[in-house]
Backbone:
């Protein structure tokens, strides 16, 4: 194995990197998924007031501020030992459902869509959203924009501003809905349900009716038998906002179910010398390396994981879509990473239906939206499902509510080990001695990490306006053979 | 004919040292400008979400941090959106690049600004949690504020 060094010129802060190392024979020896180190978060939080955390933590990220805001708000409930009134919980979930519609829509149409609609080996210049709308029509492009804008409108309505909401408070929320606003939300929700149904139909027409794609989804190159994690309600159905964390084993059997405050009994973090990122694993199984199977503590926390970890959905259309998902893919659990794209659309439908249900809930316009905390704060853990996986916040304060310690396990980190394994397996299946490494082949390797909807925007935001991801392939001499995804000015 | 509406948009992450420079400059411009047809906004979003903010304006100035290969921290570039058309790969973990987002928005008929100018400040540290920029980048802030004000005069 060659020693790994990071080329100082390409070590641009703020991007993720996948490095693939080939042996003398030209076969894949290993691969590494790396992210930049962010320094000093704990120190940055220390000494701040806990109630500022929903505002501070959501600024970590330009992609899912709402997820951090919600996890942080729930952590404050636990920290201040306060139970929000029922209308406040419903408003939070309504807000969060609207956010899910925007985020899942972006991922499917911007990232997953091009690979399938244009084809994994389509020229790069066409394999993007512009190619997609050129092929499927401007009308769908308009629907994508509309679904996002309308649901951002709900976030704005409740959060007080378009980005970085000022909404969640310990014990409740800062603003409710009046009847006029409720009607507007209801209409947006109805449109969103239609949009989600359309999206599932697009997936059906373009992916499921194409044998080549179905074969690719179920192929061994994109399959890992792991544990799966997701929040569930009291009847073990998918819930994004609240509940217990349920973990199922690779056979789909319940392995653990725990309240947020117990997370440290179940999840530990493995450290590798080559990565700043920690690799969470199931404590009771232990870290056995980057391997799958029942004996390995590696788990996944993704849309696919949430469906696998639950017994079903609470809304009728999403439940139908859920059943179809498993009957088509041969029963539970599904281990095919690429099926995550489909799972995401099942969740899109659930988010839209749940939004509609909540908008029609008689309590949703209630002014009873806050319980004022009176207990002394000490320690709190809050967990939500971010669109890309389970998100945990944990704060310890003094008796005045001043932060002494803050720990976050962000969604992408949960999947760090699995991403590494997925990339390696796809690379091993695709890169063969003597076989030319084409653009299309590299894209098929990228397709192994894309389902995880990695959020490296936590890292940085500098131009060109996205958090880049780079794939570098080295030969046995450590020379760069191929590089993908430079985002630098020429 | 109505007044020409201009948007000044500072982008960045206010918690990660130099990454917040665009926001600091926008905040300073907010203090300096008091004209009804100019809106100054600060945001941390990227990709498609930028479209939501740009809709309805005739002209826009975007201010953001940038990292280039041989850049010197504090250096300021005045760029067109086309400058970022170097790649259209769907490689970003979650979103499209700015050029693609703009083109997409125009294709589906969104009323987007006719003219967009980007001021990008070369940064050095975007990975330490801090609300302060590094000294070289801090020194570039007043210069960039003046450059934006000059740009507005030209319009």
Residues:
């Amino acid at each position: 194995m060659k020693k790994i060094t990071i080329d100082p010129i390409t070590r641009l802060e703020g991007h993720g990197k996948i490095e693939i190392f080939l042996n003398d024979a030209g076969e894949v020896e290993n691969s590494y998924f790396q992210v930049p180190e962010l320094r000093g978060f704990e120190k940055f939080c220390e000494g701040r007031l806990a109630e500022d955390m929903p505002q501070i933590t959501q600024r970590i990220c330009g992609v899912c501020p709402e997820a951090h805001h919600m996890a942080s708000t729930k952590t404050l409930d636990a920290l201040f030992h306060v139970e929000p009134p029922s209308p406040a919980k419903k408003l939070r979930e309504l807000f969060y459902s609207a956010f899910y519609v925007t985020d899942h829509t972006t991922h499917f149409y911007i990232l997953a869509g091009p690979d399938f609609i244009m084809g994994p080996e389509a020229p790069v210049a066409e394999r993007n959203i512009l190619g997609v709308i050129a092929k499927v029509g401007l009308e769908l492009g308009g629907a994508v924009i509309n679904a996002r804008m309308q649901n951002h409108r709900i976030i704005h309505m409740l959060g007080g501003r378009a980005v970085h909401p000022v909404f969640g408070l310990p014990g409740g929320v800062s603003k409710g809905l009046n009847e006029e606003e409720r009607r507007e939300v209801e209409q947006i929700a109805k449109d969103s349900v239609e949009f989600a149904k359309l999206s599932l139909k697009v997936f059906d027409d373009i992916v499921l009716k194409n044998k080549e794609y179905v074969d690719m989804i179920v192929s061994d190159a994109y399959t890992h038998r792991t544990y799966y994690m997701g929040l569930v309600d009291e009847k073990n159905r998918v819930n994004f906002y609240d509940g217990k964390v349920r973990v199922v084993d690779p056979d789909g059997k319940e392995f653990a179910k725990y309240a947020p405050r117990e997370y440290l009994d179940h999840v530990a973090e493995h450290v590798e010398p080559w990565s700043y990122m920690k690799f969470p694993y199931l404590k009771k199984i232990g870290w056995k390396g980057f391997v799958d199977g029942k004996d390995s503590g590696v788990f996944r926390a993704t849309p696919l994981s949430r469906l696998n970890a639950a017994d079903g959905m609470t809304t009728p259309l999403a439940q139908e879509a859920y059943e179809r998902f498993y009957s088509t893919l041969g029963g539970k659990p599904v281990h095919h990473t690429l099926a995550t794209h489909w799972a995401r659309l099942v969740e899109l439908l659930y988010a839209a239906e749940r939004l509609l249900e909540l908008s029609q809930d008689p309590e949703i316009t209630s002014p009873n939206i806050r319980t004022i905390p009176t207990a002394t704060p000490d320690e709190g853990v809050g967990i939500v499902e971010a669109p890309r996986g389970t998100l945990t916040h944990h704060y310890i304060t003094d008796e005045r509510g001043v932060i002494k310690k803050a720990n976050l396990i962000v969604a992408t980190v949960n999947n760090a080990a699995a991403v590494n394994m997925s990339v390696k397996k796809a690379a091993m299946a695709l890169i063969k001695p003597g076989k030319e490494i084409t653009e299309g082949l590299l894209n098929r390797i990228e397709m192994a990490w894309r389902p995880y909807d990695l959020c490296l925007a936590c890292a940085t935001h500098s131009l060109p306006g996205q958090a880049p991801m780079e794939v570098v392939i080295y030969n046995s001499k450590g020379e760069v053979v191929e590089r993908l995804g430079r985002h630098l000015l020429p | 004919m109505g007044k020409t509406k201009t948007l000044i948009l500072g982008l960045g992450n206010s918690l990660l040292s130099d990454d917040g420079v665009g926001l600091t400059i926008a905040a300073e411009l907010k203090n300096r400008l008091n004209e009804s047809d100019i809106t100054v906004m600060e945001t941390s979003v990227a990709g498609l979400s930028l479209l939501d903010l740009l809709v309805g304006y005739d002209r826009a100035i975007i201010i953001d941090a940038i990292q280039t290969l041989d850049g010197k921290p504090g250096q300021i570039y005045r760029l067109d959106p086309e400058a970022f058309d170097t790649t259209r790969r769907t490689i970003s973990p979650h979103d499209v690049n700015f050029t693609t987002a703009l083109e997409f928005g125009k294709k589906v008929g969104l009323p987007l600004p006719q003219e967009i100018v980007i001021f990008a400040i070369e940064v050095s540290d975007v990975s330490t949690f801090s609300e302060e920029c590094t000294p070289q980048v801090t020194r570039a802030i007043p210069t960039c504020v003046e450059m934006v004000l000059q740009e507005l005069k030209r319009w």
